[in-house]
Design goal:
Pfam families: ABC2_membrane_3. The protein has helices spanning about 1-15, 20-25, 25-40, 55-65, 80-85, 110-145, 150-165, 185-215, 215-220, 230-255, 265-290, 295-300, 300-305, 305-310, 320-325, 330-345, 350-375, and strands spanning about 45-50, 70, 90-95, 100-105. By secondary structure, the chain is α/β, with parallel strands linked by helices. The protein is elongated, with a radius of gyration of 31 Å.
């Protein structure tokens, strides 16, 4: 009953705090939306490539690519001056059969565009050259065959005809998750959804409880007969409800507005994010009992939150030192990110992510227990 009273009081205070509600519900959507616009636009990058004495065949092939804008260089100025003068991402120079490309490399994304399309164009030009030589050889062979006696000519033409329709390799591409035009945002979106839920719940819950402690509200509660577990239960219940609503809003926005392709159940995505929110809530409450001011609360973010990004699955850690890969297992986002990637990208069911869910639940239970014990430093109940 006393837990319910605390629960209702916190909800009333939250409902009157418009800035907190905006931070919980609007801020994650704005950040996700901005990242979508920025990272999605990178798939349409075009780079300026300077060419000097380059063969017409290669120029013709490069012009077919809409991601490359060619600039013909005819002056005798240095490469660095031409790169700067014409705002080039790279300059391609040919001497006899040798191609030399110099990259500005101030923007590595533009360098990547030039590299990809230059290799593609050179390969296609070489293939066309080989095909031309083959056709020429075939014409010469045909003229030789025609000069042979009728019997021998018909025998050779019969054998060549049977091989003309021989099986040849063909390649068709299919994508389980996303498509050929998938952007960086598509790759990291599953983890971003979970991380923003985690971060904002941690921030709001921690700062709010710290404010109640510094203003004396928590102190008055601790001088009453209310037990520690009832206090923590009220806070977890109130902020847990807020986290549930935030999770629903963020997940629906990400999937139905931003169009994140999900192969798994939306209910599983909700469940994973709710567990992450519960862990973040418990962690925020714990940190607030250790901090003596809002500034100290913010100081915990580089220690507890920033590392979560690196070990959340947003980056490939397969080549990292084995010690650091093991170290990643102490962070809740490691399990949350793993579960979200499996569900959204691979269509995994609850039987595939059960261990991740159990570990997240264990994190929440342990942190809530530590919170209850931690209140002893203020009063023994």
């Amino acid at each position: 009953m006393r837990t319910l009273v605390i629960f209702e009081r916190i909800l009333k205070e939250l409902s009157r705090d418009k800035r907190t509600l905006a931070l919980v519900f609007i801020a994650p959507l704005m950040v996700l939306g901005l990242l979508y616009l920025i990272l999605q636009s990178n798939t349409n990058l075009s780079a300026r490539l300077g060419t000097e004495n380059v063969s017409p065949n290669l120029i013709k092939q490069l012009k077919k690519d809409n991601k490359i804008k060619l600039v013909t260089i005819n002056n005798k100025k240095s490469i660095s001056r031409n790169l700067k003068k014409y705002h080039l991402a790279a300059l391609l120079k040919q001497e006899d059969q040798k191609l030399t490309v110099t990259y500005q490399n101030a923007d590595t994304s533009l360098t990547a565009v030039v590299k990809e399309n230059l290799v593609k164009s050179i390969t296609k030009t070489q293939i066309k050259s080989i095909k031309s030589k083959i056709n020429q050889s075939q014409q010469e062979l045909t003229s030789v065959i025609k000069s042979l006696p009728t019997t021998e000519r018909e025998a050779i033409e019969s054998k060549l005809g049977s091989k003309k329709n021989a099986n040849s390799l063909s390649l068709s591409e299919k994508y389980i998750y996303g498509n050929a035009n998938s952007s960086l945002f598509t790759a990291i979106a599953p983890v971003l959804v979970g991380f923003f839920v985690f971060f904002f719940v941690f921030l709001i819950s921690g700062v709010s409880l710290l404010h109640e402690r510094t203003t004396g509200t928590l102190g008055r509660l601790l001088t009453s007969p209310v037990k520690r577990q009832e206090i923590i239960g009220g806070y977890v219940g109130a902020y847990g409800l807020l986290a549930i609503l935030q999770t629903i809003v963020v997940v629906i926005y990400a999937i139905y507005i931003l169009g994140i392709n999900s192969r798994g159940s939306i209910w599983l995505i909700m469940l994973i994010n709710l567990l992450l929110a519960l862990v973040a809530l418990s962690m925020g409450l714990l940190v607030s009992t250790l901090a003596s001011s809002e500034f100290q609360m913010i100081q915990f973010i580089p220690i507890l939150i920033v590392p979560q990004v690196f070990f959340s699955g947003m980056f490939n850690l397969s080549d990292m030192n084995s010690f650091w890969r093991i170290f990643a297992h102490i962070f809740p986002m490691y399990y949350g990110g793993d579960a979200l990637i499996d569900v959204i990208k691979k269509g995994a069911g609850i039987e595939n992510i059960g261990i991740d869910l159990l570990i997240l639940a264990a994190f929440a239970i342990i942190l809530i227990s530590i919170n209850i014990i931690g209140l002893r430093r203020y009063r023994r109940v």
